[in-house]
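Standup notes, structure subgroup. Blocker cleared on the flavin-adenine dinucleotide input:
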Amino acid sequence: MAWHLAERGASVTVLEREAAPAMGSTGRSAAGVRVQFTIEANVRLSLYSLPVYREFRERYGHDVGYRPIGYLLLVPPERWASHLDAVRIQHRLGAPVEVLTPREAVAYVPFRTEGLAGATYGPWDGVIDPHLATHAWVTMARERGVRFRFDAPVRRVRRSGSGWRVETPTGAVACGWMVNAAGAWSAEVAALAGLELPVVPKRVQIFLSEAVDDPRTYPLTIDVGSGVYLRSEGERILFGLDDPAQEPGFAEGLEPAWLEHVLRTAVRRFPWFADLGIDVRGSWWGYYAVTPDHSPVIGPHPDAEGWIDACGFSGHGIMHAPATGRAVAELICGDAPGEVDVSAFGHDRFTRDHPVEAHVF
Ligand SMILES: Cc1cc2nc3c(=O)[nH]c(=O)nc-3n(C[C@H](O)[C@H](O)[C@H](O)COP(=O)(O)OP(=O)(O)OC[C@H]3O[C@@H](n4cnc5c(N)ncnc54)[C@H](O)[C@@H]3O)c2cc1C
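Run returned:
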C-alpha cells in the first residue's frame, strides 16, 4: 500500500506498533493464496494479486517465496451445485481451475473419497512467504521515500484542519489521509478517532505435524464439508479448522481440547491422521480480523473525510494484499475506479444491509 502510494508520488509515513515488520497476523498466517472464491469481486482481487506474487522477482527483483502447490477443494454433494456456479464465475474471469472427480483428486493427497461429489484444483493457487513479501514491500517502499517508524503505536488521532494529527509516544504526524490497516486491531485504531468499524479479532489456531513419509507436496487441501484444511510444510503437515464458537477477542494460546477436536474431525476424511505425530511446540495461533460477512472493508469511512479503512480480511489478507494496496492508492490519488475495483467491499454494504455473499473456506 505504502509502495503503491509512493509510486504515485504521495508522501507516506507508516506507523507500526511493533519493532519490526510482519509481527501481526501476517507473520502468523497459513500463507495460502488462491483464485477459488465464490463471488466475482473476490476472484478479481485474486486475479490481480496472484500474478503479482508469481512474477515478483521479474517485476521487482525480490523473492517472495511463491510456490504454486495448488488449492484442492473436496466438495460434498450438498455444496457441489453452488461450487460449480463459483467455478463458472472463476472460468468466465479467466481463473485457471480444474474440475476433478474424487478419484482424480486422490492423486494429490490421500483421502477417503466417500461422501464427496467432486473436487476442484487451482494450479495458480499455492503459498507465498509472508515475511519475505512484507520485507520486499518495505524495501521497495523505502526506496521510494516512504518513512517507516517502528515501535510507534498510534495512541491518539484527531482532526487537524482538513486532515489528521496522529500521535504516538515518540512523536506526532500530520497527514491529509489516514489509512487504517491495523488488522485485528483496526477497530481500536478507528475508535481513537471516534469512529466505529465492524471488525473484531478472532483467535485462530494452526497445527504442525511431525515429518510424514510421503515425497509428495500436498496442496492446500480443504475438506469443504468439515472445514478441515491441510498442506505440506516441508516434510510436515500444517493443518487447522475454523472454530465457529470461538468468541471474538484477543484470546491467547493453543487449546489441547481444540486440537483433539480437529484431529477427530480430520481423521474421518484423512484416515492417516490417526498415525500423525503432532509437533505442538511448532504449532501456533494468531488473529483473524473478522467482519460480519467475512469480507474486508476497503474504502472511505462514511463518517470521516480523509479516512480509508483497509482491514477485516477475515483470513484472506495475504492473498489479497497486492490488490488492496493498489486499490487504496487509486482511491487516495484520485484514479479510482482504476485497475482494482473494491466497490463491493465498501462500508455502505453494512448500512444497506447488503453483505458480500461468500462461503467461508
Ligand atoms: C492462523 C492464521 C492463518 C491465516 N491464513 C491465511 C492464508 O492462508 N491466506 C491469507 O491470505 N490470509 C491468511 N490469514 C489472514 C492474514 O494473516 C491476514 O488477513 C493478514 O495478515 C492481514 O494483514 P494486515 O496487514 O491487514 O494485518 P497485520 O499483519 O495484523 O498488520 C497489522 C499491523 O498493525 C499494527 N498495529 C495494531 N495496532 C496498532 C496501533 N495502534 N498503532 C500502530 N500499529 C498498530 C500491528 O502491530 C500489525 O503489525 C491467516 C491468519 C491467521 C491468524
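Discussed briefly. The longest strand covers residues 200-208.
Next: hand off to the docking folks.
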